[in-house]
Amino acid sequence: MRALVWNGVNDLAVETVDDPKILNPHDVIVKVTLTTTCGSDLHFIDGYIPGMREGDVFGHEFMGEVVEVGAEVASTTVGTRVVVPSFIACNRCWYCDHDMYSLCDTTNPNAELQVPILGSATGGIYGYTHEFGGYAGSHAEYVRVPFGDVNCFAVPDFVTDEQALFMSDAVPTGYMGADFCDISSGDVIAVWGAGAVGLMAARSALLNGAARVISIDRIPERLALAERLGAETVDYSEVDSVQEVLREASGGRGPDAVIEAVGMEAHSTGAQEAYDRAKQLLRLETDRAASLREAIIACRKGGIVSVLGVFGVMDKFPMGAIMNKGLTLRSAQQHGQRYVAQFFDYIEQGDLDPSVLITHDLPLADGVRAYDMFKNKTDGCIRVALRP
């Protein structure tokens, strides 16, 4: 089959690779209908996250059709149109029992690679380094899905392929970020980043009852889409102080909760930008974490900081602000299996349309060009849907 592979830092190619096979009686093979670019892929493409090997198929957000099932798959049938959460769950371990599916104790066969860094291992994820399981990714014609009955969600007829695609990752990640905020009526929520995850976090905060949601970014097309989804917007490159804007919007206190949806390659301005870029370039730190620092400082006393961005080791972490202001810090990789079913209801009711994230629709053969456009934010690109 044809697939988009990683061959080194900023070296991608579409190549012929082996078709996936059933390895476990609970496996399912999915023919990929749609997959998409994701900002978290850029971190290993740019060389800030180790663990990729030459020829690895990457990509983790996808939907498609079941074409083969293992002998012990009970409820997932051939021919079913499905969406698959990016993190792989077993639905049998303690973490899955507590709806923390991305922390599954079963699905990462390379747990020993994470333990020295994290203390314990996460679950596996498609196409995202060998530390996260070494699974082949979704930028391919076919994908092996372990524990098919747990990880394949049948897509109702009223949901389009383009809508279902983002239920694999962007929608549940953004929704989880809003869920972490424990939103009450009247709350003001600020969201750093208006990429796909940040946009879905902003929309989800409104669906959860926030009175005002303020999206912070600098890219005009992203800010325009945030407004279309119901958020107010701040272009941080056009204001003297984001902090002052947020205090003014929240009665002088600061937002009740903040959501960081940027991660380790954040852009900023002034001396902070120069400092972070220099240290990251020299690999003296992995993270440019300006957005997270700013979110922590902006949050009101007693508020919640919800972190969705991918981070490694960041410099100048404002722990004093968290402690002295009594902030609650909440974070995780997305627990998609917890949320997918309710997204179908939101779509049926007309409250959510994830397909608005697609600005470009290309064949997988154009995957290298898609990632160049996505990474460099050219031609108004927010997300590229890739069709194998």
TrEMBL record:
Domain called Alcohol dehydrogenase-like C-terminal: residue spans: 196-266
Pfam hit, one: ADH_zinc_N
SUPFAM superfamilies: GroES-like (SSF50129), NAD(P)-binding Rossmann-fold domains (SSF51735)
Highest taxon, organism lineage: Bacteria
The keyword Zinc appears for this protein: yes
UniProt-listed CDD domains: FDH_like_1
InterPro entries: ADH-like_C (IPR013149), ADH-like_N (IPR013154), ADH_Zn_CS (IPR002328), GroES-like_sf (IPR011032), NAD(P)-bd_dom_sf (IPR036291)
Listed cofactors: Zn(2+)
Residue ranges of domain Alcohol dehydrogenase-like N-terminal in the record: 25-149
Gene Ontology MF annotations: oxidoreductase activity; zinc ion binding
Keywords annotated in UniProt: Metal-binding, Oxidoreductase, Zinc
Metal-binding in keyword set: yes
UniProt similarity note: Belongs to the zinc-containing alcohol dehydrogenase family.
PANTHER family, sorted: DEHYDROGENASE, ZINC-CONTAINING, PUTATIVE (AFU_ORTHOLOGUE AFUA_2G02810)-RELATED (PTHR42813:SF2), ZINC-TYPE ALCOHOL DEHYDROGENASE-LIKE (PTHR42813)
UniProt name for this protein: Glutathione-dependent formaldehyde dehydrogenase
